[in-house]
Amino acid sequence: MDSTTNSIRQIAVGFLGMGNIGAGVWRLIGEMQDEIASREGVEFAVKKVLVRDLLKRRGAAVPKELLTTNADDVLNDPGIALVVEALGGEQPAAEYIRRALIAGKSVVTANKLALATHWKELLETAHETGSCLYFEPGVCGAIPVIRTVTDSLQANRIERLYGIINGTTNYILSQMSAKDASYADALFDAQQLGLAEPDPTADVEGGDAACKLSILSTLAFRAHVPLEGLFRRGITTITPIDVSYGRELGYAIKLLAVAKRDGNKVQARVHPTFVPLSHPLASVNGSLNAVYLYGHACGELMLYGRGAGDAPTASAVVSDMLAAARTDCSNASAAYRMTGAVEMDTDWESRYFIRLQAVDQPGVLGAIAGILGRHGVSIASMRQTTGEGRAPLLFVTHMAREKDVRAALGEIDESLATIENVIYVEEGL
Ligand SMILES: NC(=O)c1ccc[n+]([C@@H]2O[C@H](COP(=O)([O-])OP(=O)(O)OC[C@H]3O[C@@H](n4cnc5c(N)ncnc54)[C@H](OP(=O)(O)O)[C@@H]3O)[C@@H](O)[C@H]2O)c1
Fold first, then answer.
1. CATH topology assigned to domain 145-307
2. What pLDDT digit, counting tens, does each position of 134-178 carry?
3. Which of 208, 220, 317, 403 is 20 to 30 A from residue 332's alpha carbon, by CA?
4. Rounded distance, CA 134 to CA 84, Å?
């Protein structure tokens, strides 16, 4: 699979994609090649690069003769030992990863969507073929969270984890907090800086974070947490009013990924969340990412850093390429071994921030409090101001069950109030 010259092992590499990440990896390999050769005795020799458009200008000086628009030139070439998948999208990426593994090639992918959506199929293919599948760059870019969970913390039962795992939404919410900006203005700003796509849906609706949480919680709990079992809500309904009320109450707003395991039950959710200002996650601002977790032996642990961008992501890709160059894959396969099935728990407990516009009439407040109380939702704090016809009303509840809160809110009709927003409050982080 690889050839040895003057004690330097050449590893033939095929790239699937040469966009932001592919070009970042190309540049980093170029920059680090002497160090990698002298330290690891390895040289990456790129044989083919799959792209869509042969004439496009690229962020890396890739020789024209390496470019191809035919995936078979990478996947069917027995001389290519290692494939770097940086295409993006679910298909054809997932199918190309599967074919590369079946062909006995090691694969490094940055693609959380393809991986989370085809997790079982791709992991089983890697197990059956003995080919290595690496995906550190797909979850939080440069932050070594996959290796930490599967390797450094393998003597732990991880009980719960919390993550700020999407840099775009964290940037938008940080701008809304720091500048009292509207969601639309903060999104526009992120787009101008290249931190948000022209179509930001995958980020702002929580899809990107859900893919990462599915992968991360699966590895942390050593049981498959399927993407379709995750609860997901995006940040598009968050207003400056919510952010400023939250701040007054002592909270920062984050798009938080939450995963908890209790015996055989797992809850996994991504949604806007108020976290106490005193918690380290509250200080993770801008496009930075962090993962905060508890293991039964290690206690609390937080990883923090750049979760995206070409250079930080390339850092994780090249590290995985070196792992693939070193290993016989038995370690990689063992790290991803699952211990059994779990049941998704959709009726979790949380505290809730509920913002309403209540009809400004005597008895309305009592009626709303009565409805919440009948459903077992008790109020921890309340704030009310008078208005013309409708008055802003704000509750923060004690711990309550999701289904009870939903049932109670379903009973509050227009004759009493309009529900403006409901935001989870995570106190027991
Ligand atoms: N950007 C980040 O900060 C970041 C961070 C972590 C992970 N990732 C992940 O890395 C992956 C790549 O992201 P990116 O930002 O590099 O994307 P990108 O800039 O859009 O690059 C995609 C590359 O794949 C090629 N491509 C796409 N579909 C193809 C197809 N069907 N056949 C042949 N070539 C195809 C494109 O070819 P052309 O150039 O010819 O169009 C392009 O070179 C994604 O899975 C993304 O989620 C990105």
1. Dihydrodipicolinate Reductase; domain 2 (3.30.360)
2. 999 999 999 999 999 999 999 999 999 999 999 999 999 999 999
3. 208
4. 10
Fold of 349-425: Alpha-Beta Plaits (3.30.70)
- Residue 120 one-letter amino acid: K
Return the residue whose CA atom lies nearest to atom 17 of ligand 1: 19
3 state SS of 151: helix
Question: Count of CB atoms within 10 A of residue 164's CB?
Answer: 28
212 is catalytic: yes
Q: Is the pLDDT of residue 119 over 80?
A: yes
Residue-range domain boundaries for the chain: 2-138, 145-307, 349-425
Q: CA–CA separation, 53 vs 290, rounded Å?
A: 36
Q: What does the pLDDT look like over 101-114, one tens digit per residue?
A: 999 999 999 999 99
Q: What ligand 1 atom has the least distance to the C-alpha of 89?
A: 45
Any atom of ligand 1 within 6 Å of the Cβ of 240: no
Q: How many whole angstroms from 93 Cα to the centroid of ligand 1?
A: 10
Q: Rounded CA gap, 295 and 132, in Å? A: 27
**pLDDT score for 386:** 67
pLDDT tens figures, 46-100 = 999 999 999 999 999 999 999 999 999 999 999 999 999 999 999 999 999 999 9
With a 6 Å cutoff on the Cβ, whether 17 touches ligand 1 is: yes
pLDDT of residue 339: 77
pTM above 0.70, yes or no: yes
* Tally of CB atoms within 10 A around 237: 13
Q: Whose CA is nearest to atom 21 of ligand 1?
A: 19
pLDDT at 426: 95
350 within ligand 1 shell (Cβ under 6 A): no
Q: So what's the pLDDT on residue 1?
A: 46
2-138 in CATH: which number? Answer: 3.40.50.720
- Closest ligand 1 atom to Cα of 310: 3
Please tell me if the CB atom of residue 111 comes closer than 6 angstroms to any atom of ligand 1.
yes
